[in-house]
């Protein structure tokens, strides 16, 4: 038995967040402590608890939006029950089931991973509950387009291949690591036009590429964030760190722009693998989640 099993998860925002019932909440936070297959560093199962714990340190007032975002009502759902070693398909069905109700109830869904593979259960829940088309904005160091990896189709390295199979349009931002096969896939499908490489973004002379991102999205948007999209200098606590990532204000600038121009229907933040005693990555992830809530709600 570990503490993570014994101790209830804290709620997002801690004691400072305005107490609020599920019924009145605009935001539903769904922790998904699923690690599954991990190719390099371990620890993403501890991501949701670390983000929720760090969120207690957030100022509820956001200086950029000049607004106490928690006034909108934040409700933290119980974590999705996962058993490591269970078939990934069963976990995905459970994530799907847990995401359905808040989506049907019109909440902004904020999913805390866990491995990036968890997004699949959310994608299928979105498809099951939405009538109008939507697209995905992926922030990530990796293209995640492998058909399978380490013997499973539900690896963190395959999540956007699964999205493509589901017929979901997507735009990829911050990419700087992929296989030759993934490159071929992007070229053969024409999806390379929707890739915004980290090396180009970081050298861009202006924000014009952000408008291009917005224009390539279709309909409402679900944002799937792999924390390794950010530079490992600010978030080293991740399983497969890649140098040369997005900086904090570039990331915020893009997310705010997207939320102003498109309706954001939910988001996930995945692949945080907490490092004991190093609080900055956990807090950075919590702050990013809170910013995403603020941008999405302000954009409505
Ligand atoms: Mn990823």
Describe the structure.
The chain is of the alpha/beta class. It has a single domain, classed as Arginase, Chain A. The chain has ten helices and ten strands. The protein has helices spanning 3-6, 47-55, 88-104, 119-129, 159-165, 180-189, 198-201, 208-216, 248-261, 280-298; strands spanning 27-32, 61-62, 67-68, 74-76, 108-113, 134-139, 170-175, 195-197, 220-226, 264-270. It has an eight-stranded parallel sheet, sandwiched between helices. A two-stranded antiparallel ribbon has the order 2-3. The longest helix is centred in the C-terminal third of the chain and has 19 residues, at 280-298. The chain binds manganese (II) ion. Residues 116, 140, 142, 144, 156, 159, 226 line the site of manganese (II) ion (MN).
* Percentage of residues in strands: 15-25%
Helix content: 25-40%
Overall geometric form: globular
The biggest sheet, with number of strands, parallel, antiparallel or mixed sense and barrel status, is: 8 strands, parallel
Q: Bound small molecules, which ones?
A: manganese (II) ion
Q: What's the overall average pLDDT, rounded?
A: 95
Give the spatial strand order of the biggest sheet: 4-1-5-10-9-6-7-8
Question: How many helices does DSSP assign?
Answer: 10
Please specify the SSE layout and strand pairing.
Layout: H1 3-6, E1 27-32, H2 47-55, E2 61-62, E3 67-68, E4 74-76, H3 88-104, E5 108-113, H4 119-129, E6 134-139, H5 159-165, E7 170-175, H6 180-189, E8 195-197, H7 198-201, H8 208-216, E9 220-226, H9 248-261, E10 264-270, H10 280-298
Parallel strand pairs: 1-4, 1-5, 5-10, 6-7, 6-9, 7-8, 9-10
Antiparallel strand pairs: 2-3
Helix pairs in contact: 2-10, 3-4, 8-9, 9-10
This protein binds manganese (II) ion.
